[in-house]
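Researcher: Going back to the complex we discussed earlier. I've cleaned up the inputs and rechecked each line, so this should be the final set. Can you rerun the prediction on the complete assembly and write out the structure?
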Amino acid sequence: GKVLVTGGSGFIAAHVLNVLLSRGYTVVTTVRSAAKGNQILAAHSDATQGELSYVIVEDIAKSDAFDNAVKSNPPFDYVIHTASPFHHKFDDPVKDILEPAINGTTGILRAIKANAPGVKRVVITSSFAAVANADSPPAIYDASSWNPVTWEEAVTVRTKTYRASKTFAERAAWDFVDKEKPNFDLATVNPPLVYGPIAHHLDSLDKLNTSNQRIRDFIQGKCTKEMPPTGSFIFTDVRDLALAHVRAIEVPEAGGKRFLITAGHYSNKEIVEVMRKTHPELASRLPADPIDDFPKNVYGYDNSAARKVLGIEFRSLKECIDDTTASLLELGAYS
Ligand code: NDP
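Model: Rerun complete. Updated structure for the full complex:
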């Protein structure tokens, strides 16, 4: 099969590319520049199966951004859309976060419908951000849970902008499929904070993707005085999430479904405890007595569809954090 993966320069996408190539897919990925494309080819040069190439899409927010990228010969069978801004350092919430997330999603779906009739399934990297109701969590989160955030909050409350961008983008995708009845069906994968080893090109650790910054900061001793809040109390490993993306294109029954992709509960205190055990040389940099912010009445989660339909066996927090720490140390995080 042939797959288009958007945002190949990203943390998660690099692992998606690895899984696709190891399973023999022909893969084209979108990047913003030829320089980034060449770095990706170099980062995956040891792939023994599958073929990798790139196509330039400078800005996913532009309405015609994907019109040409979805055309290919032979044509694409599947599209995995991962590109979307994930950071909180924006100037303009609409231009910098909401538009690329929403227009990027509707734009690629429109382009596929118009120009890529061979595509059978589109998988979108959504998020637990589109699932979670931070103000009033249900007893158990599942595929029917939606973030109730409003546009007004999205543009005025900085901490809600990113989460709203994922919520509105995913809603727009399901609405598109509902109304347009396109040639493809849709599946979304909805992970909470994702940790894991780095497989993509990084200019420097200052440019590390948002979710792994917490582990980098622990390694660098930045949290000895004050522990950052855990935020969401469920996590997943990037390698399991990458496999979930690929299983979501492969498994027929995945069509039309939303998958909550999580390994389970955790807190920052547990991360610190794992790091102390697996990397005792870091002890002096870690908070000596980390605050436990794990709620007694924490919400539950239903990841049974990810396990049963997609066949994911989730890595433990220990394995995830051990490997993430080792990867960041290899990239020079300790110095
Ligand atoms: P990264 O920041 O590493 O990747 C984001 C990707 O999106 C990059 O390839 C980036 O390109 C691309 N991108 C962002 N904005 C634009 C734009 N305007 N035009 C073109 N490309 C753009 O983050 P992750 O790998 O973590 O995120 C990938 C996806 O996973 C996102 O959809 C994110 O919302 C989702 N997600 C991530 C979670 C996590 O904890 N990491 C949790 C839940 C969901 P460039 O490199 O050129 O900037």
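Model: Worth noting: The pocket of NDP is lined by residues 7, 9-13, 32, 36, 59-61, 82-86, 100, 125, 127, 166, 191, 193-194, 209, 211 (CB under 6 Å).
Researcher: Good, that matches what I expected from the previous run.
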